[in-house]
Specification:
Layout (H helix, E strand, L loop, with lengths): L1 H29 L1 H37 L3 E5 L5 H12 L4 E7 L1 H12 L4 H4 L11 E6 L5 H9 L4 E5 L4 H40 L2 H9 L4 H40 L3 H4 L6 H28 L6
Antiparallel strand pairs: 1-3, 1-4, 2-3
Helix pairs in contact: 1-9, 2-7, 2-9, 2-11, 7-11, 9-11
């Protein structure tokens, strides 16, 4: 008997959900102009948010690429024996925040220098072999890019170290610029989001105000608050999601053209940066905008209908 009651109850709930969903889509179609106005408002607002998010996600990606290239190069004293080099390596490994140590022989160092110099490398090519003046080196990576400064300072004090290089003066400024850019980006995105929430919520509120009589009639014939609220809840969600998918498609098409242009013209070989892959960015952006749009739509609907339920 209890099992039958539970089954009946489940069926009734499913029918109620189905009824609310059907009514929501009917209402959206019936109030065509207001639906169009709401979706347009969500689209415009989230288009601005989406464009800015695209820029900020790529800037953050570029900042991570730059940070990951920060390393400490420890040039070993030319008089150090292989045993002393190993002793130096062991002492470096004891320093806090050292993630990895890679040995770079002077031959490998010269090849790397020749490769980096490109067409201007003729002078260095003549130094290959016994004329190579470069010392052996250790390339140090830290767990966090900002830890390179402290690690470099600690290594400088060790025995058998000729010199330590990590871009002193430039690296500190780089970290400051990256921090400022990220903080400014976060503030601007939050400001844009709050503006979008205000615009979208007020537009959705207008659609509900235009149906005030409908809500009052439903309340007068005995409908509960939840029964009245659910269709509007679903409508707000649909408006938010549809309004988010449109800018996602527009930004996706624009970003595809930009990414294709960037790859086909091999710009990344000149500026040494990589954009976020097209599929990865569009997927991330669509999820973000759909979540934002859906939440704002639901919040705007439930917040706006609250005062009309007091009949």
């Amino acid at each position: 008997m209890c099992a039958m009651l539970k089954e009946v109850n489940t069926v009734m709930k499913l029918r109620t959900v189905g009824r609310h969903t059907k009514e929501s889509f009917k209402s959206l179609a019936r109030n065509g102009w207001m639906t169009f106005a709401s979706i347009s408002s969500v689209t415009v607002a989230l288009l601005l948010v989406g464009v800015f998010l695209t820029v900020m996600l790529n800037l953050n990606n570029i900042a991570q690429q730059v940070e990951n290239n920060v390393e400490v190069r420890v040039f070993i004293d030319n008089t150090a024996t292989p045993a002393q080099q190993q002793e130096l390596k062991a002492n470096i490994q004891k320093i806090k925040n050292v993630k990895s140590i890679t040995f770079l022989s002077k031959e490998e160092g010269l090849k790397e220098l020749i490769k980096d110099m490109g067409s201007d490398s003729d002078v260095f090519k003549s130094l290959e072999g016994s004329q190579n003046p470069l010392p052996d080196a250790y390339v140090i990576k830290t767990y966090e890019p900002k830890q390179t400064i402290a690690v470099a300072s600690a290594i400088q004090k060790l025995q058998y170290v000729d010199s330590v290089r990590y871009g002193k003066g430039i690296v500190e400024k780089l970290f400051k610029v990256i921090d400022v850019a990220r903080n400014v980006g976060i503030v601007l995105i939050l400001g844009l989001l709050f503006t979008s929430i205000f615009l979208i919520a007020n537009t959705i509120k207008l659609t509900i105000v235009s149906r005030q009589k409908e809500i009052e009639i439903m309340k007068l014939v005995g409908a509960t608050n939840s029964f009245v609220r659910w269709p509007f809840f679903l409508e707000g969600f649909v408006l938010g999601v549809v309004g988010a998918l449109i800018p996602s498609c527009i930004i996706g098409l624009g970003y595809h053209e930009l990414y294709t242009l960037f790859i086909n013209n091999n710009y990344q070989s000149y500026v040494f940066i990589k954009l976020i892959p097209f599929k990865q960015l569009v997927f991330q952006l669509t999820i973000l905008l759909v979540v934002i749009g859906g939440c704002i739509g639901v919040w705007g609907s439930t917040n706006s209908i609250r005062k009309f339920l007091k009949v």
